[in-house]
Amino acid sequence: MLMVNPYRNRSLCLLILVLCLLPPFYAHSEEVLTWRDCVLEARENNPDLVAARGMIDQAKALKAVSKGPMLPQISGFAGASKRGSDAYPTTESYSYGITVSQLLFDAFRTANSVSAAEEYVRSAEYAYALVSADVRHRLRIAFVNLLKAQELVSISENIEDRRRKNLELVRLRYQAGREHKGAVLTAEANLGQAEFEVAQTRRGLALAQQALSKEMGRRKASAVRASGELAVSSSLDAPVDFEAIAAGNPGLRQYTALKEQTRFNLRAARADLAPKLYANASASRAASEWPPASDEWTIELNVTLPIFEGGVRQAEIARAKAALRAAEAEEKVTRDGIVLGLAQAWTNFANAVGQVSVQQKFLDAAQTRATIARAQYSTGIISFDTWTIIEDDLVRAEKAFLNARADALLSEAGWINAQGGALEDAE
User: pLDDT of 223-238, one tens digit each?
Assistant: First the structure.
């Protein structure tokens, strides 16, 4: 006879019930992401990077096209015809064959065109590096803003809890006849403000989550949580050579590549005035019936020299010269702008880092004052007006310290962006 343990069955039922309740809990839990997690996902999915990689592929294809004239040009042909008239009988002819043409000399026009295409590929690669740096900057801003929003929610909830306790203390003193009605109303207003700020910061948190999801290239926003600290990792101790940093900036290197591209284009335009030498060969079969059996072949050298084309080639040279002058000027303007931008970004970063320690001291002082003031107010040593000013100072100091740490990280991101730090280099 089979014996059934009722307690075991009851335990199994409880276990099944718990397992059924677990999935909804996990389905709504937040996804925790480190900075590295965000970087890796953005590298693959950010649409700006995908588009920039497509531009590199187009540039490489254009380079392959520019090499075409350097290689043999081979083509085949086949034909059939029938002729007739009242005076002559109808005749038929058939032919097929192959022709080969090879450029032997064009005053290095094709070679310069290929070099120009290579510089265009380099400029596309530097353009990708610029896009990558911009994506890294935006991603870092979104990540820091999410860290800040998470901590701001916690601070706001703590402020709400403190405001609620303050209201209870004021009400007790009011009921004991040691406080006036205005103090109670002020404490209630402070609590209402704190409750509003909690709701406001939670909405800001949802917006920060959406911004980070967008920069990672996700199709839909998801509930994510940033894992990290609002602490700067870069050092300000080492001397900074803005000129040397600017020389490696992808924005400047892109303009340098474009300048070299226009230089090669000018050389190619000048080479168009020189004669071109081609070697041509063909082999075919022709006859009046199919398949033709009569072999024919030719080998020839051809020289072409432009004599007059309405000034088109001279105009192309003038245009290429103007493009080169413009590219040289743009390179200089870009260099100067990058150097100035580096100096501004470094100054902002240094100021923001210094502000963190200042706000830390203000917060320490405000916390100490608030602790003392609460004890003094509860015993009637100080008035409500004095106490509430000290409490408000603490609230402002907590928020200012959070803003200072977040601003330092954002300024650090701006400094890295000014240097051209790409997403691929992010840690």
Answer: 899 999 998 887 787 8
Collect all residues with Cβ–Cβ distance below 8 Å to 221 and sequence separation of at least 6.
209, 210, 213, 214
Which H/E stretch holds residue 281? Answer: strand 276-287
Report the side by side order of strands in the sheet with 73-83.
73-83, 91-105, 276-287, 294-304
Q: Are 222 and 213 in contact (CB under 8 A)?
A: yes
Residue 25: other Cβ atoms inside 10 A? 8
Q: For 28-78, where are the alpha helices, taking DSSP H only?
A: 35-45, 47-66
pLDDT at 217 exceeding the cut of 80 = yes
Instruction: Kindly give, in sequence order, each residue whose CB lies less than 8 Å from that of residue 368, ignoring residues fewer than 6 positions away.
Output: none
Tokens matching residue 252: 């400047």
- Residue 304: C-alpha distances to residues 72, 75, 101, 238, 378 (Å): 18, 21, 14, 62, 104
Distance CA 316, CA 334 (A): 26
294 forms beta bridges with 286
DSSP 288: S
Question: Beta-carbon neighbour count of residue 423 at 10 Å?
Answer: 23
Beta bridge partners of 99: 75, 282
**Among 419, 37, 20, 89, CA closest to 228:** 37
pTM attached to this predicted model: 0.82
